[in-house]
Write a structure and sequence with these properties.
The protein is an all-beta fold and about 300 residues long. The chain contains two helices and 27 strands. Strand 2 and strand 3 form a beta hairpin. The chain starts with a strand and ends with a strand.
Length: about 300
């Protein structure tokens, strides 16, 4: 069956003063075989500006490799380009509002140029973009939302700029990161040992496969190493007193981990997904104080030891 050609659809918005654009095919299954490798979105249609790329506008247009977004577009809706074949993208400065999961599961997306006035990288914006290697978080960014770069397995390094004040859950889960750096003048976060830290270095927000947990850390945060498959070895310092939920979730390539006697509390599913070939050594007396579901979903061998006097 040959590929079907497709046209753009324009919908009036803002009291008929502007247009929203999308592909002129509503059936998602049909979109997958459209003959639509390149698109240049016009800045003007029927003498009115095109200011919006609608929600799911090009969702599942898998043959779409290239798109030009004109100056004047102000809003890009949820999943607008998700599951497309895009290889690169440049977003103009005029875009003020971004939806969630805009480029999620764009498996061929290797580079993305973000505008230097961007404030938020939204939920799952680049989730499962497995070839993404070239991206710089602009200095203007203040918020990195949940799962923004989760599953970006080819992303090797990232720098958190000075204005970031919030990093969501699982922002870098499942990434291939080897280097994490926080700008020295950031007032909320710091970096050390390829870890993102908070609270004067006492709270570990996120790590990667090359992380060395600093000795000053007291709490390993929620999902800090979530789905970090590249992690093979990690040592927990004896000042750590708390391990939050999902901290080492699906870290399936760690051979053995030792939880020091200093840990007073471990939350739920800390080691979910661990396999029989892995070993977790814990203090038996201390572990009785932890949340009962701390080892839920964990098949690893649990070695118990006595509390040191």
């Amino acid at each position: 069956m040959g590929q079907k050609e497709a046209a753009l659809a324009f919908t009036p918005i803002s009291d008929n003063s502007a247009y929203s654009v999308s592909i002129d095919v509503s059936d998602f299954a049909e979109r997958e075989t459209l003959d639509i490798s390149e698109i240049s979105i016009p800045a003007v249609y029927q003498n009115l500006p095109v200011t919006e790329i609608g929600s799911q506008a090009f969702f599942r247009c898998r043959t779409l490799k290239s798109v030009v977004i004109p100056d004047g577009v102000k809003n890009i809706g949820d999943r607008a380009f998700s599951c497309t074949g895009l290889t690169s993208i440049v977003i103009p400065k005029t875009v003020e509002k971004f939806g969630n999961s805009i480029f999620a599961e764009c498996k061929d997306l290797a580079s993305a140029k973000l505008p230097d006035n961007l404030k938020r990288i939204q939920n799952s914006m680049f989730e499962k973009c497995g070839k993404l290697t070239d991206i710089t978080i602009p200095e203007s960014v203040e918020y990195l939302r949940d799962g923004a770069f989760s599953g970006c397995s080819s992303l090797k390094s990232i720098t958190i700029p000075k204005n970031v004040i919030d990093i969501g859950n699982g922002t870098f889960s499942g990434c291939g990161l080897e280097s994490i750096t926080v700008a020295g003048d950031n007032q909320k976060f710091t970096s050390n040992g390829n870890c993102i830290l908070m609270n004067n270095g006492e709270y570990l927000k996120a790590g990667c496969k090359t992380s060395v947990i600093p000795k000053g850390v007291k709490c390993i945060g929620r999902g800090a190493f979530f789905s970090c498959e590249g992690l093979t070895n990690i040592s927990i310092p004896n000042r750590v007193i708390q391990i939050d939920a999902y901290a080492f979730y699906e870290c399936v390539n760690v051979t053995k981990i030792t939880i020091p006697d200093s840990v007073e509390y471990a939350d739920e599913e800390v080691f979910y997904g661990w396999q029989k070939t892995q070993t977790i050594q814990v203090n038996e007396q201390q572990s009785q104080k932890w949340k009962k579901s701390w080892k839920k979903g964990c098949k690893a061998k649990i070695e118990y030891r006595e509390l040191k006097s």
